[in-house]
Amino acid sequence: MSSTTNPATAAEPQAGAPTWLPPAAVAVTLVLWASAFVAIRHLGEDFSAGPLSLGRLLVGAVVLGGLAVTRGLPRPTGREWVSIVAIGVLWFGVYNVALNEGEQRIDAGTAAMLIQVSPVLIALLAALFLSERFTLYLGLGLALAFGGVALIGLAQPEGGESDVLGVLLCLLAAVVYSISLILQKPLVARLPALTVTWLACTVGAVACLPFLGTLLTETRAAPTSSVLWVLYLGIFPTAIAFTTYAFALKHMSASSLGVTTYLVPPITIVMGLVLLGETPPTMAYLGGALALVGVAVARRKPRTRATAATPPA
After folding, report:
1. Where are the alpha helices (DSSP H) in the chain?
2. Digits of tens for pLDDT over the chain (313 positions)?
């Protein structure tokens, strides 16, 4: 699913786990999320965007449900259910369909770089709707990130033409993902993040049910290996990666974990080269680097002057 730090679940590092376990959880999360971009690209020949989304979400909802119910049955309020439904439709429904369709048109590495602009969008939406401060760094980072997106959109693949629609679809996925994280912020303050993810994934699966007939048809026609890849998407990048991410966030600071997500695009590019034999166009590398610089700039906090401590009376 997505590879961006969730500001809603920011937490200070906690003791109790072996020191090697949180970094191991981070490594598992990054590799699984990167592999999702490659798997989606690979499956484009056998499954169209909507049915692939439904197949992944159905598997993910079942596995996440098995993990989440061990914590007890959730009791969201009516208002929380509204947010959960919105997140399910946007994050798990629209996001997956847009990303899957986008990767029918552009390579996995380019798609991963485009999704990485979401931290800038999250910061912008937080400034607009959560009364968080709009800083000069945020404005500059926003400009740099979208300058990078423009370069990616203009990139010419070797032996072909750039596909602006594919870029726009991946950018749409980044936008709806960012909106969903803003909606998720008040939810995870009261409900376990895993529970919210399970419920939203289930809602997304329900939203994609109109693709059920096509999914059944394409599954019957697809080779067994492709069907297994759909199961892989639902179990590993969706259910397991969200679980390892939540574990890592519990034992690490959100800022430290957030930096690691910048590794998803290069891991995806390497996997795409090894498994698919494709790499992004040269200009896309430049655009991706510029977008990541924009993300890093937007995440900077303005310096504050130190105030002298009041001497004891």
Report:
1. 21-43, 49-68, 78-87, 95-102, 108-115, 118-129, 136-154, 164-184, 193-207, 212-221, 224-233, 241-251, 254-260, 264-271, 282-298
2. 444 444 444 444 444 567 878 888 889 988 999 999 999 999 999 999 999 999 999 999 999 999 888 877 778 899 999 999 999 999 999 999 999 999 999 889 888 888 877 777 777 777 777 666 777 877 787 788 778 777 777 776 655 555 788 889 998 998 998 888 788 878 877 888 888 889 999 999 999 999 999 999 999 999 999 999 999 999 999 989 888 877 776 776 655 566 667 788 888 988 998 999 988 887 778 887 887 787 777 767 665 444 333 334 4
Alpha-carbon gap, residue 95 to 117, rounded angstroms: 14
SS3 string, 80-129, reads HHHHHHHHHHHHHHHHHHHHHHHCCCCCHHHHHHHHCCHHHHHHHHHHHH
Which three-class secondary structure state does DSSP give residue 188?
coil
Specify the amino acid at residue 53.
S
pTM of structure: 0.80
Do 83 and 187 touch, CB atoms closer than 8 A? yes
First to last CA, the chain: 55
Asked if 178 contacts 8 with a C-beta cutoff of 8 angstroms, the reply is no
Between CA 79 and CA 74 the distance in angstroms is: 14
Q: Which token pair is 197?
A: 């993810």
Q: What sign for the dihedral angle of Cα 106, 109, 115, 117?
A: negative
